[in-house]
Amino acid sequence: MHRVVVSTFPNAKALPLWAGVEYGLFADQGLDFVLNETGSSKEQRARLATGEVDIVQAAVDNALVMIKAGHDVIIFMGGEGGMNDFIVAPSIRSFSDLAGRTLAVDSPDTAYALLARKVLAQHGMELGKNYQFRAVGNGAKRLRALKEDSTLAGAILNPPFSSEALLAGMRSLGSLDDLVGPYQAGGAFALRAWAEDNAATVERYIAGYLQALQWLGDDANRNAGVDLLRQRLGLTMAVAQATYEQLRDPNKGFTPRAKFNQAGFVGVLNIRAETEGVDVTTANPAAYVDLSFYDRVADVSDRSVNTMRGADS
């Protein structure tokens, strides 16, 4: 068995990983799979840098932060476009109402915080001048902070926390896909040296993840998937069902077969350049986006699926 420690956030986007563990999909690939659920992207990056975790399945923007800090990281698979909504308190009716207010974020210099800055800049607002950020942690912590702290006016939230927020009376000012356009959000990345030394493990992980996405897309597994969300996240049936359907939506949920969105990644780089300034260390994606592991696995998987289809015809 190939041991691998994978870090992710404990939100609905972890469903393929939970299903992969629960139903032995990673074990089928010969993996001794250990799942690490992180409390923040800062903690996650630190554990990858020290080798406490091998692979991160989360916002690939964090890989760029690590590269900028001098770590040799590669992105080797896509995943999803974020599934995020700009959630605000009931009293907020428009972006202009956020003037002078504070937003809850995970980390102020990565991923969805930068998207929030992009959106607010489009409405003539500047961080530190017109509004503030407060780092509170992952989605569960951001939702809890919004519920408990009236000084916080909003946060970027993904499923199931966005659904819970809306049921609690909060508002959405729009999905980030609609507000900023294509964006390569979640994906998989690792230290280059580890990935090259453990290429078979990386490819087994990719194969297991693709198998988990296939499991998720099978209508026969709907009830099991909803139950996993309820058990892992303590959701009501209504929230779990709504979340499950969003995850399965090829336009708003997981990207089919976890393909890396090249146009969406350009969006990531452009947003970082607009909000953080141009960074020469990440200017050339070919230096750190290595899809060769994925291509080898996907090619074999596609040929296998086509053979099965031929047998059924």
Number of domain modules: 2
Shape: globular
* Low-confidence segments: 304-313
Number of strands: 10
The count of helical stretches stands at: 13
Reading side by side through the largest sheet, how are the strands ordered? 2-1-3-10-4
Q: What is the CATH first-level class name of the largest domain?
A: Alpha Beta
- Multimeric state: single chain
How far apart the termini lie comes to: 36 Å
- Helix/strand order: EHEHEHEEEHEHEHEHEHHHHHH
Q: What percentage of amino acids are in beta strands? A: 15-25%
User: Describe the biggest sheet?
Assistant: 5 strands, mixed
> Could you say what the CATH architecture of the largest domain is?
3-Layer(aba) Sandwich
Overall mean pLDDT: 93
In short:
By secondary structure, this protein is α/β, with parallel strands linked by helices. The protein folds into 2 domains: 2-81 and 183-312, D-Maltodextrin-Binding Protein, domain 2 (3-Layer(aba) Sandwich), CATH 3.40.190.10; 85-180, 3-Layer(aba) Sandwich (D-Maltodextrin-Binding Protein, domain 2), CATH 3.40.190.
Can you put this structure into words, describing what you see?
The chain is an alpha/beta fold and 313 residues long. It has 2 domains: 210 residues, D-Maltodextrin-Binding Protein, domain 2, CATH 3.40.190.10; 96 residues, Periplasmic binding protein-like II (D-Maltodextrin-Binding Protein, domain 2), CATH 3.40.190.10. The strands form 2 sheets. It has a 5-stranded mixed β-sheet, with helices on both faces. Strand 6, helix 4 and strand 7 form a beta-alpha-beta unit. Helix 10 packs across helix 11. The C terminus is likely disordered.
